[in-house]
Amino acid sequence: MWDCHCHLTQVEDLPAHLESARRQGIHGWLSCASDRDSWLRQQEILRIPGVLVAQGLHPWFADQGCQGLEAFLSEAVAIGECGLDFYRAREPESREKQKEILRQQLELARRFRKPVVLHCVRAHQALLQEMEAFPEVRCMIHGFLGSTADAQGWLRRGDFLSLGPHALSRVDLMRHLPLDRVLIETDAPSRGASLLDLCPVLQAWQQVQPLQPELFQSNLFRFLG
User: Fold this and answer.
1) CA dist., res. 54 & res. 60, Å (int)
2) pTM above 0.85?
3) Residue 54's closest CA among 183, 179, 180?
4) CA-to-CA distance for 163 and 145, rounded, in angstroms?
C-alpha cells in the first residue's frame, strides 16, 4: 500500500515508524512539505526507500512567501501541500494572500509540468475558480471531506480525491466516487494520526466496495504522471 499524503519530516523516530508500517504492508509514502523550513528536511528523506516528496507552501504559512521554492523542485514529484483554508483565513486580506501564494505555486506547476497536492477547507468553490486558469494542472484534493456535489466539481476536472482517517464514516463518498480517481492517506502526524492508520482506511473502503490495495498505488502513479 501507498500512503498518498503524509508529513514524514514531522514524524518523531521516523525509522521505527516506517518499519512498523512496512510490517503492515505499507511500503510507500508521498511526504508533503508545509512551511519553508520543511523544504530542506524533505530533501534529506529522499534517500529512504519508498519515499517520494512534494515541495510547497501550506496556506497556513502563506505569509512566509514561496520565494526560492523553485530550487527544491528538481527531485520533487509534485508541488504541495498548497491550497486555500478559509476556516483559518477569515478576513478578505488573509484570503487574498492565500490566493496569491497558491497562484505562484500553480504557475510553477504549469512551468515544471508537475501535479499539485491541494489543501481545501471551506473553499471548494473558490479553489475551483482559481483552478480555471490552470486547466492543464492535475490535482489531488487531500483529506477530502466535502459533499458529493463538491466531489463532482473536481472529478469533472479529471482530478483525484484522497480520503484519510477522518473520512472513515463517509460511506456516501466511498460508495459513489469512481474507483479510478480515489486515493488513501493518513496525513500523519497531523491531528494525531499515525502511519499505521492507513490500514483502517483501506478496510473501510473494502467494506463498501470490493477492491485490491494495489488500486490506490496505481491511481497515485497516474496522478503523478
Assistant:
1) 17
2) yes
3) 183
4) 7
Residue type, 169: S
Task: Cite the beta strand spans of the chain per DSSP E.
Answer: 2-6, 28-32, 51-55, 78-85, 116-121, 139-141, 160-163, 182-184
Chain-centroid distance of CA 105 in Å reads 14
Under 8 Å CB-to-CB from 180, ≥6 apart: which residues?
Answer: 219, 222
Cβ contacts of 177 within 8 Å, gap of 6 or more:
151, 155, 161
- Residue 9's alpha-carbon distances to 6, 86, 95, 119, in angstroms, are 9, 25, 27, 18
| pLDDT tens sequence across 19-66 | 999 999 999 999 999 999 999 999 999 999 999 999 999 999 999 999
Q: How many Å apart are CA 155 and CA 177, to the nearest integer?
A: 9
Report the alpha-carbon distance of residue 107 to residue 25 in Å, rounded.
37
